[in-house]
Amino acid sequence: MYLRKIMALPFLPEGDIESMFERLEGQASTAALGEFTDYVRTTWIESRTWPPSSWSVYMQSVRTNNHIEG
Known about the structure:
The protein has about 70 residues and is an all-alpha fold. It has one domain (about 1-55). It has four helices and no strands. The chain has helices at about 1-5, 15-25, 30-45, 50-55. Helix 2 (about 15-25) packs antiparallel against helix 3 (about 30-45). The longest helix has 15 residues, at about 30-45. It is globular, with a radius of gyration of 13 Å. The model has no long low-confidence stretch (mean pLDDT about 90).
């Protein structure tokens, strides 16, 4: 359930992603989940290459990079 919540972050408004991630990060109950949240923070939350604005799909009609799937 915890990983599903992390994977659902792109469906939130861009401005809410970081604060919700921080709430979830505080709920990491094992060392493995802690390592995972460290990865998500450095790769997706604080990244200059892929900031949350580039992967948030909130209120977008096409939520995939393959428009035929939509």
